[in-house]
């Protein structure tokens, strides 16, 4: 399964807002529209938005060359527009910085820029496979695994981070059940994770977010693995809203709690999670459900898209270079050297 395709003159994105009802691909030739697609979550998931933004920079370069525009100015403008799309996942800024290094070094060389974006995409898939292998070693036979949101092929260049671990463990016949939190308000768990796992014939049970604690209390969960949008230098990390509650529940019930992430998600420039910018989204996402208004008109809402889990609640971080254990500040520092 994949959500991003590059066709040399256009970027194709699987419209994730329409899944699982329809598999509809959209074609982009304008970077401004890619920025809008990231904002509206046609493409979502930390690594996937970085990859989409990298390809969008190729579209920006093509436009600038075609229009005989001031290349550095046009590229900086495109970078700023894409950077303004979503604030939390650091992969977006990481990919844009990589593309900037490339155009600053090579100038308006379309094939070099295209090659860099494709490399970012392929590297992500490779990292996910390695994360899968490293993480599967942590999964006991017959495991019942809980996950939140969607950190799968749809959220990445392919294969997935948390779902990459589950995919590899399933291949090794270790997974007896995956419980997918539906993940209100936008239902990435129900619409995307359950869909992805069903397509791969991985056993999945869909639950509402407020059922996770009850499952843990009944002894039905052996471990939790989630994705990550940004990890700070001390191991605090942002992921989909609700992740923090799961981590607290996991600690209470003595259940191992893992996050799976490529190194493009690690932000050593910030010391701890309090520095992670958390996206606030439109309140209508929670005052409405499936296109119907469910909250009274005019009700006040609070809709952060992510929360921050303190590193103390994390058992280990699964990366493409192996599994990192506490103390995370030292492990992360050594990891990125
Ligand atoms: O708002 P989303 O759907 O972009 O949030 C996605 C997540 O929180 C994922 O867990 C995270 O990006 C990791 S994806 C490998």
Which helices and strands, and how do they pair?
Elements: E1 4-6, E2 11-14, E3 25-28, H1 31-39, H2 46-66, H3 71-83, H4 90-106, H5 110-136, E4 143-147, H6 162-171, E5 175-181, H7 188-199, E6 204-207, H8 212-217, E7 223-226, E8 230-232, E9 237-240, H9 243-253, E10 257-260, E11 266-267, H10 284-287, E12 288-289, E13 292-293, E14 306-309, E15 316-319, E16 322-324, H11 328-335
Parallel strand pairs: 4-5, 4-7, 5-6, 7-10, 8-11, 10-15
Antiparallel strand pairs: 1-2, 2-3, 8-9, 9-14, 12-13, 15-16
Helix pairs in contact: 1-2, 1-3, 2-3, 2-4, 2-5, 3-4, 4-5, 5-6
The structure holds 5-S-methyl-1-O-phosphono-5-thio-D-ribulose (MRU).
Can you describe this structure?
- The strands form 4 sheets. Strands 6-5-4-7-10-15-16 form a 7-stranded mixed sheet, sandwiched between helices. A 4-stranded mixed sheet has the order 11-8-9-14, covered by helices on one side.
- The radius of gyration is 19 Å and the shape is globular.
- It is 41% helix and 18% strand.
- It has 337 residues and is α/β, with parallel strands linked by helices.
- Helix 4 runs antiparallel to helix 5.
- It folds into 2 domains: 125 residues, Four Helix Bundle (Hemerythrin (Met), subunit A) (Up-down Bundle); 199 residues, Translation initiation factor eif-2b, domain 2 (Rossmann fold), CATH 3.40.50.10470.
- The structure holds 5-S-methyl-1-O-phosphono-5-thio-D-ribulose (MRU).
- 5-S-methyl-1-O-phosphono-5-thio-D-ribulose binds next to helix 2 and strand 9.
- The site of 5-S-methyl-1-O-phosphono-5-thio-D-ribulose has 17 residues, from helix 2 and strand 9.
């Amino acid at each position: 399964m994949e959500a991003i395709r590059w066709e040399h003159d256009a970027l194709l994105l699987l419209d994730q807002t329409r899944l699982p009802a329809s598999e509809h691909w959209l074609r982009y030739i304008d970077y401004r529209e890619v920025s809008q697609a990231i904002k509206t979550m046609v493409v979502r998931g930390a690594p996937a938005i970085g990859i989409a933004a990298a390809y969008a920079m190729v579209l920006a370069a093509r436009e600038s060359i075609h229009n005989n525009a001031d290349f550095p100015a046009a590229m900086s403008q495109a970078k700023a527009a894409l950077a303004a799309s979503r604030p939390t996942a650091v992969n977006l800024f990481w990919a844009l910085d990589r593309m900037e290094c490339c155009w600053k070094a090579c100038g308006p060389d379309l094939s070099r820029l295209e090659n860099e974006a494709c490399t970012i995409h392929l590297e992500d898939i490779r990292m996910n496979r390695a994360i899968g292998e490293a993480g599967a070693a942590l999964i006991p036979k017959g495991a019942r695994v809980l996950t939140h949101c969607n950190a799968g092929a749809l959220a990445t260049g392919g294969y997935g981070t948390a779902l990459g671990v589950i995919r590899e463990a399933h291949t090794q016949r270790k997974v007896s059940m995956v419980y997918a939190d539906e993940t209100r308000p936008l239902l990435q768990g129900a619409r995307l994770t359950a869909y992805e796992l069903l397509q791969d014939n991985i056993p999945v049970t869909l639950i509402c977010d407020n059922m996770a604690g009850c499952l843990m209390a009944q002894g039905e969960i052996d471990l939790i693995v989630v994705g990550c949008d940004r990890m700070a230098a001390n191991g605090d990390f942002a992921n989909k809203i609700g992740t923090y509650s799961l981590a607290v529940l996991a600690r209470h019930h003595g259940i191992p709690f893992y996050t799976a992430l490529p190194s493009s998600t690690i932000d050593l420039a910030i010391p701890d999670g309090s520095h992670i910018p958390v996206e606030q989204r439109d309140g209508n996402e929670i005052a409405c459900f499936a296109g119907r208004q469910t909250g009274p008109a005019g009700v006040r809402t609070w809709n952060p898209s992510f929360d921050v889990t303190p590193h103390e609640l994390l058992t280990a971080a699964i990366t493409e270079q192996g599994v990192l254990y506490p103390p995370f500040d030292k492990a992360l520092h050594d990891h990125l050297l």
